[in-house]
């Protein structure tokens, strides 16, 4: 019988990311739509974003990020039992992008599936991996959160095309080893607001047709102000719930990694929690909003830049279409 003392605790033992080389700057966007650098920077904090080439498919980006995470975790692909791929921009409707990564990595011992939680994808995937590891079903899980949103952007719509970029994040979640304990995961959703940010066509409800293409219904449509309002509320509530679940306060947090959707949202959140600027990890100026991967890319960069002492805590929080939201406290562990 397993005693409480022997309980397996899921932790991240390696992180990785992949960003395409091609940069789309605000100056580039000024040439495409009626916008300007001053508007974009003051309203969003974004200066540039990465755009994947035709060869840089979502499965390719995810595979490259996964290689980095596996190396950091000192695991071989044969050790992986499950590949979990969070995305809203799969290579195909089916097969899953997770299966394409499984093929690329030759991870023949791994089961594989995609999950869809929009911009909250990384945190939803961490929560799922935690549940699988702690139930004893799997020992090592490769989590990937990756999106190629540039394939779903209308580059004549200034209200959305300035916001999004491409990129992938990955991590290995295991039941032992040093890294970051996934101390909790507070997830939530509100499907009654599913219309305020979505891609209207291309699913089984409204399959592709000449009409849907002409009406540009395969691109992201967003009610920006409405989404903004809910993002602020939900990220704040999810953060508070996370702190409550772990039994800590904001002063116990060494770094806050919020979803990188808008610098004003991020700064508002930091202010509410009285977390100083130096503790808020921001990548938005470089990458824009990379959807599912945004928290994971930031986490990988933070882990490579800073040396975090034992017991230090990071708070991840995200929000996206669905609506979905989630927050998770990660705690540095040495065993
Ligand atoms: O990852 C999922 C979560 N996503 C988010 O959390 C995004 C949340 N929303 C936002 O971040 C903001 O709502 C935006 C950045 C998208 C927009 O900022 P805003 O301050 O809410 O602007 P707005 O949509 O209310 O538009 C204000 C004005 C409008 O002009 P009028 O009607 O006042 O004359 C827009 O047409 O700004 C105009 N505008 C632009 N002007 C220059 C909209 N986009 C642009 C642009 N350049 N790119």
UniProtKB/TrEMBL annotation:
Domain annotation Beta-ketoacyl-[acyl-carrier-protein] synthase III C-terminal: ranges: 243-331
Catalytic activity, reaction form: malonyl-[ACP] + acetyl-CoA + H(+) = 3-oxobutanoyl-[ACP] + CO2 + CoA
Top EC category: transferase
Any one GO molecular function term: beta-ketoacyl-acyl-carrier-protein synthase III activity
Keyword Cell division: no
Cited CDD domains: KAS_III
Subcellular location field: Cytoplasm
Positions of the Beta-ketoacyl-[acyl-carrier-protein] synthase III N-terminal domain: 113-191
Gene3D superfamilies named in the record: 3.40.47.10
GO cellular component, as recorded: cytoplasm
BP GO annotations: fatty acid biosynthetic process; secondary metabolite biosynthetic process
Free-text comment on this protein's domains from its UniProt entry: The last Arg residue of the ACP-binding site is essential for the weak association between ACP/AcpP and FabH.
Subunit details: Homodimer.
Family membership: Belongs to the thiolase-like superfamily. FabH family.
Protein name: Beta-ketoacyl-[acyl-carrier-protein] synthase III
Species: Aerophobetes bacterium
Lineage of the species this protein comes from: Bacteria, Candidatus Aerophobota
């Amino acid at each position: 019988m397993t005693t409480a003392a022997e309980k397996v605790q899921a932790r991240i033992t390696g992180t990785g990311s992949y960003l395409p080389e091609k940069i789309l700057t605000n100056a580039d966007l000024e040439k495409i739509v009626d916008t300007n650098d001053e508007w974009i920077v003051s309203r969003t904090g974004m200066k540039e974003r990465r755009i994947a080439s035709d060869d840089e498919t979502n499965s390719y980006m995810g595979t490259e990020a996964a290689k980095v995470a596996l190396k950091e975790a000192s695991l071989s692909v044969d050790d992986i039992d499950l590949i979990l791929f969070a995305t809203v921009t799969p290579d195909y409707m089916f097969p899953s992008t997770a299966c394409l990564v499984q093929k690329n990595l030759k991870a023949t011992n791994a089961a594989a599936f995609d999950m869809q939680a929009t911009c909250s994808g990384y945190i939803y995937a961490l929560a799922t991996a935690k549940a699988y590891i702690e139930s004893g079903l799997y020992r090592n899980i490769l989590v990937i959160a990756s999106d190629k949103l540039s394939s779903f952007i209308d580059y004549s719509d200034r209200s959305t095309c300035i916001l999004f970029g491409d990129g992938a994040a990955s991590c290995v979640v295991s039941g032992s080893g040093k890294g970051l304990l996934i101390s909790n995961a507070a997830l939530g959703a509100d499907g009654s607001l599913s219309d305020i940010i979505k891609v209207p066509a291309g699913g089984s409800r409204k399959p592709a047709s000449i009409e849907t293409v002409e009406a540009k219904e395969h691109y992201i449509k967003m009610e920006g102000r409405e989404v903004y309002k809910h993002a602020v509320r939900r990220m704040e509530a999810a953060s508070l719930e996370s702190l409550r679940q772990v039994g800590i306060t904001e002063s116990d947090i060494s770094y806050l990694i919020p979803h990188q959707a808008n610098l004003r949202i991020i700064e508002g959140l930091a202010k509410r929690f009285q977390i100083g600027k130096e503790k808020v990890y921001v990548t938005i100026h470089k990458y824009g909003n990379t959807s599912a991967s945004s928290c994971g890319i930031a986490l990988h960069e933070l882990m490579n830049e800073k040396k975090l002492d034992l017991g230090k805590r990071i708070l991840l929080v995200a929000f996206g279409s669905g609506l979905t939201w989630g927050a998770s406290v990660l705690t540095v562990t040495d065993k």
